[in-house]
Amino acid sequence: MADKNERTSRKHEYPPFWDKVVPIALTIIAIIMFLLLGIIVGVAMGLFPGG
Amino acid sequence: MATLTTLLPLLSSVLSFVFAALVFRRYLWRRRPHLLIWAIGLVFYGIGGFCEAYYGAFGWSGLIFRLWYLCGAILVAAWLGQGTVYLLAKRRWANALMIILVAASLYGMVRVFTAELDPSLMTTSVHTGSELSGHAIVTDGVRVLTPFFNLYGTVTLVGGAVWSAWLFWRKRILLHRTIGNILIAIGATLPAFGGTFSRFGVPLALYIGELLGAVLMFVGFIRATTPMDDTGERRRRGGE
User: Fold this and answer.
1) Does residue B238 lie within any of the structural domains?
2) Which of A36, B187, B193, B210 is most buried, judged by most C-beta within 10 A?
3) What's the average pLDDT block by block, 10 residues per block, for chain B (240 residues)?
């Protein structure tokens, strides 16, 4: 039973490295995504050369 | 430089077709629609790369240019994103968006293949003279379509991958999928950034962005679909 509980709880853990890195990475990617969306909108509006 | 303008997109193309075959094989096993749509999107990616390589090796061709613009510039991101919509959204919504995407894609295809081209404007010659550019399409109302497809593709593909990774991280489950989705999200942004840098005069930026994007999405897909082996970790914990 104890082993079962341990296995169940372990499913809800990440190694410390990933636990810290994932939210930082996702935040950076989300910012980049919004930047990209801004660029795409800019291209659509003719604000950038070569669009 | 001329060799790289052939080699880089050729590598992207081969990788994309291999990736598409892998995803399609998975679709045959599992019959999940998102896999089929992703495979179609990756075929578009591969066609776009092939057209760029063809241009680098043999030069101007109206057919190749039109195929490149349709598949590589207009359709690829939106179709890859549509696969993610099938994965994350309710089937009814995904089907409705699919109908709109198919209709818009057919419209785009007709517009691109009936547009007037000016071969002298086909590269970003003002800046780098290396990568293809949509400038050669001189008919009004064609290039204006591209941002709408790319807007949809970016929101659904990158946003969907970020959203999935966030959900897995919040519940602290399926680390391999979290990592895989992060890689897919980064990979999906690279071609767009490459295109932007290319416009601002960085040589080969588009082709490098496309190749790195294909590599990262491929690795991300493999990572997301391959559960991590934690037996070593279990053994270590057992010894504690």
Assistant:
1) no
2) B210
3) 87 98 97 97 97 90 94 96 97 98 98 92 57 85 92 96 96 96 96 82 87 97 85 45
Domain membership of residue B48 (yes or no) is yes
Q: Please indicate, yes or no, if residue B239 is contained in any of the structural domains.
A: no
Does the CB of A47 have a partner CB in chain B at under 8 Å? Answer: no
Q: Measured between CA atoms, how close is B172 to chain A, in angstroms?
A: 5
Give the torsion through C-alpha atoms of B37, B41, B44, B45, to 10 deg: -160
Instruction: Find which of B143, B198, B199, B236 to mutate to test the A interface (most A CBs within 10 Å of its CB).
Output: B199
pTM above 0.90, yes or no: no
Within a domain: B234: no
Are A48 and B199 a contacting pair at CB < 8 A?
Answer: yes
Q: How far apart are the C-alpha atoms of B81 and B159, rounded to whole Å? A: 9
Look up the CATH number of the domain holding residue B43: 1.20.1070
Residue with tokens 């990617």: A29
Give the domain extent around B81: 2-229
Q: Which residue has the tokens 């990572």?
A: B223
ipTM of predicted complex:
0.81
